[in-house]
């Protein structure tokens, strides 16, 4: 690849490049992995990434243009559900903090889907207070040796690599003693165990790290700068806003509305009132996502992004709860309690009971609703922070 | 169901219009002057600020939706919606909703003949104002009102709770004649207008009694009913924008207060119990903004979804605006309960507006009809 010089491409130029690319690589006749590899090499994977890292240094907003163009030419990649952490979190973090060698090694197989990623962040003792993680990484010559336990780890059983946040200096306050690593999930000492959830299945895992040796070349960012790197990862951990409008009644509210329409014998006055309230709330939330999508498309994303996950969780919970009540005797049943290992979250599939139980996780995963409210109050509204007792205390001296 | 979503953003032109209206209101309609207007013992009509209305008209506010050849701006509901946000933010006591939205929308829905054309030109210029003679609580989708009878060119009947009628020069009256519904114009001084002591003093109401007042028929039958309906739909959509503006004032003012006010040795805004309430309110307001833009866009685009979008806006935003105002009163503590501080103006406006043009409950029932979610038997 020849690094381009001069100004980054605009929307028209990107459309031209996609058309040229598709002319050379027929989406219908090319193997998906090969197609994606070539797309990466052409800088059309993430156009806002640097040249050589799957991008062209274009404005981030133009990624939507490129995705829409590929879709228009009939290319919609399949089987990408297991890649959410790699695509959504690992890629932007590696692009921002990775060395040249790390970018070259990791980004392409991540993009093509040949390598699955997971995230070793949360611990039994560090959930909302992520900066309190206690998994220790100790320097030993050219390596780091890691001991600790991580939880709520989606995809760990399929992952080749992980984003790992570990403590390298317990003597300083918690935010300052962290370092960020890429963890080799095939290394000796990595033990992945399924963590069964209230739904009966094990979408998540717990991961034990027992003397795992990681070469220093897998460190991402400087020693002691792990919190700064983790914030980049967390900023990308949000409900992603797609490139196309969602239809009205596209989500869970559509399922319940159709149930109401097709099963008149289930209708009661109280449930009608509740259904209408939720229909209004769901439509308002959909229009808010649509407005955010339009803002993002013109390069002006607003702070509404932080509102989207909060209302998504609450609505899923209320709508799925209504669905069970509406179902009456059928609401007393559950589709299957057997211990399964799904590839990813399935919020709309399976039965109503599953949807109700799975939705309880929506206000816990990816930042609890309580933490999100605090984030909105402090970062959007500018309200003062709560007084903190842990800010200037060495991590090792914190109560736990 | 529409295939394309309305544009939910604000254009540069809309933001310029917002800035000029906001500046005028900051100069001419600070909350102290609104409070003064409603604090005296005088006639409720004196709360209305017609001098301010003429200045707003000079900016084009009175004739935004009136055609350019009649002296209007030839703009759409999108621009009107932005202006409504600003008027709500200032609880401006001007006849925007009654005259520039409800009466004007009924008239622009008719094909432009005299005397409608001349009246629209006067309304756009701000020289005269009009009111739509329906109870302000009338919801879109309701049956054609039967409060007024038309007989041989005269009108008979009484209409309670008419907004902006006290200061109006002309009344646009839906009335029923022997051959069906019609819309009529009546010179306002031919009606007996009795002031009502209104919950929201910044939007004066009157009972309008017509005892054989001479009237000019401007539409009949289906055309009259459609014109009234389109006025109520536009009113619902634009009232929601006004509610959004008022709610934003309430949130902004409460946030500012909680940053300043210190109790227990810390700013009140650092207490999580209060932060989370305001965060939830901000989330609701960001949704209200999308819903309001959607309604304005659907009207502007002439979308068949406009009645649904307007009903959604009222069903959603009414409750958000009332919550914002109630939270503002509560979180200002003792100050919020005093007459001297303006929060009560916003509470009264918000609660009245939640009833105006149909309660949220009526709009939910309308949505149920429009999206086929029938009630239980």
From TrEMBL, chain A:
MF terms per GO, please?
A: flavin adenine dinucleotide binding; oxidoreductase activity, acting on the CH-CH group of donors
Check the record and name the SUPFAM superfamilies matching this protein. Acyl-CoA dehydrogenase C-terminal domain-like, Acyl-CoA dehydrogenase NM domain-like
Acyl-CoA dehydrogenase/oxidase N-terminal domain: residues covered: 14-114
GO cellular component labels = plasma membrane
Enumerate the Pfam families for this protein. Acyl-CoA_dh_1, Acyl-CoA_dh_M, Acyl-CoA_dh_N
* InterPro entries assigned: Acyl-CoA_Oxase/DH_mid-dom, Acyl-CoA_Oxase/DH_mid-dom_sf, AcylCo_DH-like_C, AcylCo_DH/oxidase_C, AcylCoA_DH/ox_N, AcylCoA_DH/ox_N_sf, AcylCoA_DH/oxidase_NM_dom_sf, Mycobact_Acyl-CoA_DH
What are the names of the required cofactors?
Answer: FAD
Start and end of every Acyl-CoA oxidase/dehydrogenase middle domain? 118-211
- Keyword set for this entry? FAD, Flavoprotein, Oxidoreductase
Q: What family does the database annotate? A: Belongs to the acyl-CoA dehydrogenase family.
Q: What is this protein called?
A: Acyl-CoA dehydrogenase
The species is Thermobifida cellulosilytica TB100
From TrEMBL, chain B:
Cofactor(s) for this UniProt protein = FAD
| Keyword vocabulary terms for this entry | FAD, Flavoprotein, Oxidoreductase
Ranges for domain Acyl-CoA dehydrogenase/oxidase N-terminal come to: 12-103
* SUPFAM superfamilies, sorted: Acyl-CoA dehydrogenase C-terminal domain-like, Acyl-CoA dehydrogenase NM domain-like
Tell me the InterPro entries matching this sequence: AcylCo_DH-like_C (IPR036250), AcylCo_DH/oxidase_C (IPR009075), AcylCoA_DH/ox_N (IPR013786), AcylCoA_DH/ox_N_sf (IPR037069), AcylCoA_DH/oxidase_NM_dom_sf (IPR009100)
- Domain Acyl-CoA dehydrogenase/oxidase C-terminal, chain residue ranges per copy: 229-369
Annotated GO MF terms: acyl-CoA dehydrogenase activity; flavin adenine dinucleotide binding
Q: PANTHER family of this UniProt entry?
A: ACYL-COA DEHYDROGENASE, ACYL-COA DEHYDROGENASE FADE28
What family classification does the UniProt entry report for this protein?
Answer: Belongs to the acyl-CoA dehydrogenase family.
This chain belongs to the protein called Acyl-CoA dehydrogenase
């Amino acid at each position: 690849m020849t690094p381009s010089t001069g100004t980054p491409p605009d929307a028209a130029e990107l459309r031209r490049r996609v058309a040229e690319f598709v002319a050379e690589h027929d989406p219908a006749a090319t193997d998906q992995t090969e197609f994606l590899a070539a797309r990466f090499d052409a800088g059309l994977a993430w156009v806002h990434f640097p040249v050589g890292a799957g991008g062209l240094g274009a404005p981030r907003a133009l990624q939507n243009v490129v995705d829409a163009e590929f879709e228009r030419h009939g290319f919609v990649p399949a089987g990408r559900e297991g890649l959410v952490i790699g695509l959504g979190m690992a890629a932007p973090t590696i692009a921002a903090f990775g060395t040249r060698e790390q970018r070259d090694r990791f980004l392409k197989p991540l993009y093509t889907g040949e390598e699955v990623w997971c995230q070793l962040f949360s611990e039994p003792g560090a959930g909302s207070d992520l900066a309190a993680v206690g998994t220790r990484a100790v320097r030993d010559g050219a390596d780091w040796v890691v001991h600790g336990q991580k939880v709520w780890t989606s995809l760990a059983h399929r992952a080749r690599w992980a984003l790992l946040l570990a403590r390298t200096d317990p003597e300083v306050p918690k935010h300052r003693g962290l370092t960020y690593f890429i963890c080799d999930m095939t290394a000796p000492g990595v033990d992945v165990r399924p963590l069964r959830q209230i739904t009966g299945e094990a979408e998540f895992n717990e991961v034990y790290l027992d003397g795992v040796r990681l070469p220093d070349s897998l460190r991402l960012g400087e020693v002691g700068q792990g919190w700064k790197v983790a914030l980049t990862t967390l900023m990308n951990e949000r409900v992603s806003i797609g490139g196309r409008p969602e239809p009205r009644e596209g989500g869970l509210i559509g399922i319940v509305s159709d149930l109401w329409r097709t099963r008149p014998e289930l209708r009661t006055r109280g449930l009608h009132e509740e259904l209408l309230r939720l229909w209004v709330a769901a439509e308002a939330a959909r229009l808010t996502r649509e407005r955010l999508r339009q803002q993002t498309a013109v390069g002006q994303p607003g702070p509404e992004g932080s509102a989207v996950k909060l209302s998504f969780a609450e609505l899923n919970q209320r709508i799925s709860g209504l669905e069970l009540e509406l179902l009456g005797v059928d609401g007393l049943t559950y589709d299957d309690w057997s211990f399964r290992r799904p590839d990813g979250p399935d919020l709309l599939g399976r039965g109503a009971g599953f949807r109700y139980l799975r939705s309880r996780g929506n206000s816990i995963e990816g930042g609890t609703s309580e933490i999100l409210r605090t984030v909105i109050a402090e970062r959007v509204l500018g309200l003062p922070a709560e007084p903190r007792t842990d800010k200037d205390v060495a991590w090792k001296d914190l109560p736990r | 169901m529409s295939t394309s979503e309305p544009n939910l953003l604000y254009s540069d032109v809309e933001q310029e219009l917002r800035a000029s209206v906001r500046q005028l209101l900051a100069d001419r309609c600070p909350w102290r002057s609104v409070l003064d207007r409603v604090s005296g013992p005088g006639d409720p009509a004196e709360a209305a600020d017609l001098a301010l209305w003429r200045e707003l008209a000079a900016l084009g506010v009175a004739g935004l939706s009136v055609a350019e050849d009649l002296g209007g701006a030839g703009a759409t509901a999108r621009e009107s919606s932005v202006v409504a946000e600003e008027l709500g933010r200032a609880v401006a006591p001007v006849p925007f909703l009654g005259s520039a939205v409800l009466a004007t929308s009924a008239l622009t829905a008719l094909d432009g003949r005299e005397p409608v054309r001349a009246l629209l030109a006067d309304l756009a210029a701000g020289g005269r104002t009009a009111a739509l003679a329906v109870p302000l609580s009338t919801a879109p989708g309701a049956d054609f009102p039967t409060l007024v009878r038309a007989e041989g060119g005269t009108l008979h009947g009484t209409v309670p709770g008419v907004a902006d009628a006290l200061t109006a020069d002309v009344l646009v009256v839906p009335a029923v004649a022997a051959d069906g519904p019609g819309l009529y114009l009546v010179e306002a001084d031919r009606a007996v207008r009795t002031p009502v002591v209104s919950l929201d003093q910044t939007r004066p109401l009157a009972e309008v009694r017509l005892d054989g007042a001479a009237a000019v028929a401007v539409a009949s039958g289906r055309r009259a009913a459609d014109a009234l309906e389109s006025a109520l739909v536009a009113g619902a959509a634009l009232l929601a924008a006004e509610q959004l503006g008022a709610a934003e004032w309430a949130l902004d003012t409460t946030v500012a207060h909680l940053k300043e006010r210190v109790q227990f040795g810390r700013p009140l805004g650092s207490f999580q119990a209060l932060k989370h309430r305001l965060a939830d309110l901000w989330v609701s307001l960001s949704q209200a903004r999308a819903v309001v833009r959607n309604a304005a866009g659907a009207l502007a685009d002439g979308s068949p979804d406009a009645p649904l979008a307007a009903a959604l806006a009222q069903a959603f935003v009414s409750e958000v605006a009332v919550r914002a105002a109630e939270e503002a009163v509560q979180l200002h503590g003792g100050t919020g309960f005093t007459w001297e501080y303006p929060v009560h103006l916003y509470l009264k406006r918000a609660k009245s507006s939640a009833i105006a043009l149909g309660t949220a409950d009526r709009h939910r029932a309308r949505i149920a009809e429009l999206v086929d979610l029938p009630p239980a038997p």
